[in-house]
Give the backbone structure.
Amino acid sequence: MQSAVIPARRTLRRRQTWKEYAVALLFVLPSFLLLVYFVIIPTLRTVQISFHDWDGVNPAMKFVGLDNYRYVLKDPLFYQSLKNNFIWTVMHLVFACFFGFVLAYFISRIAYAKTLFRNVLFMPNVIALSVSGIIWTLIFNPQMGMLNGMLDALGLSSLKASWLGDPKITIYAISFASSWQAYGYYMTLFLAGLQNIDVDLYEASDLDGANKFDQFIHITIPGLQNVFSFVFSMGIINGLKGFSTVWVMTQGGPGTSSYLLTLYGYVKAFREQNYGQSMVSGIVLGLMIIVITRVFNAIRDRYAA
């Protein structure tokens, strides 16, 4: 009798397990379908187009194999865009991420009007990228712009420049404008991280005779380790994806001096109607983001262990 009951219990448990799996699948299925439709299928379509010569209009595509990859990887403009991307990313990390951390730290240390400072300093982040680009185009105007006017007023006329007209400095000027628009996002992340650090740690360190610098090095920085990792990853991704500010301010000019990989792909697709080569630049950009973030995460995990 007992030997007959045990298989029955096992069968009932299996049925209950399968019911749980079915319920879980019903909850996961909508998100999975959205992921397939909006991420996986477009990604596979991008790879497919990269092997074809296609103008984006005619339904027929001509298979060209690796020709698009060979052309793009030999194109000097591609490497110029790649170089600009690295400049853009480094400046984004310095002027958006690091500056956001500095502001967050000082806001967290003041005793009054924290909310006011936080809201005011966050305002650039809510400005549309196109509006931000127009504002900075006016600031960088060589004749009537506020920047050159301020340099004149300070007696630093020798530093005046055609900020958006000189091919040697344009990418730096636009990168700075983009970083100004983005720093508020990272400032908010750091503020949240600072608020999660246990205040008792600072009080205990005061009793032990630690100064502010010691507290910063041994409490604040370790307490923000996870925030730093997330911000650095997001800074790299957002830096490599830059497009809107460049397009509004210079459209890649003067000449092609401020091209980024995103703009390179845009021009290939919508001006030259060569979607195959455009997809190649997008694939290269995606692989760069994956490789850089994976390397960073590996280094972070190694030192965190």
